């Protein structure tokens, strides 16, 4: 079975080859514990991607359509699915191509495309699986779906009278055409993306009741690798013990395989490892997908105006932004570069907040400290219980046009742009949901701080369902006195990230597609 699909043609596009590579991919990656040829490629190290499409589909319910879909799934789509080993093999080809380029000759892009696949709880039911075979997820989070979770746990804006989500699009709110599965497709440019979409669309022609697309692409020029707020993205992804972890990754978080993959060992336990009826889940992972609109000019204006409000400090809006995020736009962490940006530290991970328990450099409420507090919660805390079980691997991509001059001048968003957020974890309730609800949205996390203050919300990703103002402490840099001053707070009266929808998916293993889901 092929684990990597190449579009072979003589035409090679004149684009820098380096932009297709993945920062965390190592061609020599291997594992004796995890079968990398059985794990879908976006989960651990991420598919090579410059353009990406998420094709959300609703299956017809009649038995002939379901049977036809399952046969096509095994016969036609499975050979197109890229595994983790396939991503590694692709990177070897890319690296070899780069090494063999003639000096001074324009580098060109190899037309490599990938596909991955995920199912919702309803989708698995529609395939005819028995109830005891389908995972519900801890607290039923997978079986209930993200729409229910968004109202009850994620903090998405809710109409207080009707209890309905206010900002979700019709595509994700549709009660009739609930999503059954998603196909992820990545490519080096829009031409190859559309070509791959057409190929896969023909496979399922006649089996679908409804479908819709979300597409994203990396940002151009010197903004490659940055999300729309301008910050370098996906730097702090945890690594997996025995798979891709290196000694230098320890402070950022090295997790057991079972934190990300179902049926693999983890100190937190994993029911799929012991339940024979769900043994087919091994090497799969749950994906949380979110369409997140980013209000870029509003965020930049907030940072600039907040800096101006303390003129005597003579600070920039960029410093306020860095303190909200926890990193400078280059990626340099505030913990290592507290006063000014240092691009040489753009990928630095050698920090864990253990030497700044009183938030001497990075605020408790900073986005990256909320999302991964590392060793900075309490002195002596057991990370294997308090932090590591909740880490997730993120492999999203920006979407939408670049900021226009009109938007900058008006300080008002007109175009829809943002992030197609993707995270992988073995339990949504322990991963994405926990981080959003218990850390980002929780003003009292971390609790019992050494600085004896209430941290406040993550001003970037934190959500309040009633759209009330969000306050964070110590965003304004007032020195050691400000770190412990409960009145040193900054309040945002509007969100800067607006959730437009999302869903939860099971990303099954290759073996599961071949032996359980396909016919």
Automatic annotation (TrEMBL):
Residues in DyP dimeric alpha+beta barrel domain copies: 38-220
Signal sequence, renumbered to the chain: 1-27
Domain of life: Eukaryota
Keyword Metal-binding assigned: yes
Protein's UniProt name: Dyp-type peroxidase
UniProt feature, compositional bias: Polar residues: 463-474
Residue segments, region Disordered: 463-484
Keyword Cytoplasm (UniProt): no
Annotated NCBIfam families: Dyp_perox_fam
One Pfam family it belongs to: Dyp_perox_C
Domain annotation Dyp-type peroxidase C-terminal: ranges: 325-439
Cofactor field: heme b
GO molecular function, one term: metal ion binding
Cellular component GO terms held in the UniProt record: cytosol
Keywords: Heme, Iron, Metal-binding, Oxidoreductase, Peroxidase, Signal
Family according to the record: Belongs to the DyP-type peroxidase family.
């Amino acid at each position: 079975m092929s684990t990597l699909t190449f579009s072979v043609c003589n035409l090679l596009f004149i684009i820098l080859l380096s932009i297709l590579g993945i920062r965390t991919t190592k061609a020599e990656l291997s594992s004796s514990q995890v079968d990398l040829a059985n794990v879908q490629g976006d989960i651990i190290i991420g598919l090579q991607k410059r353009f990406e499409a998420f094709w959300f589909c609703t299956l017809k319910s009649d038995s002939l359509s379901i049977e036809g879909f399952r046969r096509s799934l095994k016969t036609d789509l499975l050979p197109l699915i890229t595994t983790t080993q396939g991503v590694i093999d692709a990177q070897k080809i890319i690296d070899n191509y780069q090494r063999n380029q003639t000096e001074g000759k324009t580098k060109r892009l190899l037309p490599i495309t990938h596909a991955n696949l995920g199912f919702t709880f309803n989708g698995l039911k529609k395939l005819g699986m028995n109830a005891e075979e389908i995972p519900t997820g801890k607290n039923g989070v997978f079986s209930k779906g993200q729409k229910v979770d968004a109202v009850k746990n994620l903090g998405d804006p809710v109409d207080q009278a009707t209890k309905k989500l206010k900002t979700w699009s019709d595509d994700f709110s549709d009660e009739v055409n609930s999503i059954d599965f998603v196909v992820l497709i990545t490519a080096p440019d829009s031409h190859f993306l559309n070509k791959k979409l057409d190929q896969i669309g023909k496979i399922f022609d006649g089996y679908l009741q409804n479908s819709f697309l979300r597409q994203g692409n990396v940002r151009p020029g010197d903004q490659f690798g940055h999300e729309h707020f301008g910050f370098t993205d996906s730097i702090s992804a945890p690594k997996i013990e025995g798979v891709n972890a290196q000694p230098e990754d320890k402070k950022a978080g090295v997790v057991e395989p079972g934190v990300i993959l179902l049926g693999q060992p983890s100190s937190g336990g994993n029911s799929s490892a012991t339940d024979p009826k769900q043994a087919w889940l091994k090497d799969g992972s749950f994906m949380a997908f979110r369409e997140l609109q980013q209000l870029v000019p509003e965020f930049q204006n907030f940072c600039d105006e907040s800096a101006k409000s303390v003129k005597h400090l003579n600070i920039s809006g960029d410093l306020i932004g860095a303190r909200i995020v926890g990193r400078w736009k280059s990626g340099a962490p505030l913990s290592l570069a507290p006063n000014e940006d240092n691009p040489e530290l753009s990928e630095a991970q050698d920090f864990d907040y253990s030497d700044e328990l009183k938030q001497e450099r990075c605020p408790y409420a900073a986005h990256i400290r909320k999302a991964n507090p590392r060793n900075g919660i309490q002195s002596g805390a057991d990370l294997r219980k308090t932090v590591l079980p909740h880490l997730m691997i993120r492999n999203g991509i920006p979407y939408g046009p670049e900021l226009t001059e009109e938007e900058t001048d008006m300080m008002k968003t007109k175009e829809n742009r943002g992030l197609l957020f993707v995270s992988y974890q073995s339990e949504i309730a322990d991963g994405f949901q926990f981080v959003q609800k218990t850390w980002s949205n929780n003003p009292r996390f971390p609790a019992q701080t050494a600085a004896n203050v209430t941290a406040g919300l993550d001003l970037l990703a934190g959500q309040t369902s009633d759209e009330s103002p969000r306050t964070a402490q110590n965003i304004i840099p007032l020195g050691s006195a400000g770190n412990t001053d409960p009145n040193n707070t900054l309040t945002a009266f509007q969100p800067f990230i607006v959730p437009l929808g999302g869903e939860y998916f099971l990303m099954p293993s290759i073996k599961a597609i071949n032996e359980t889901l396909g016919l």
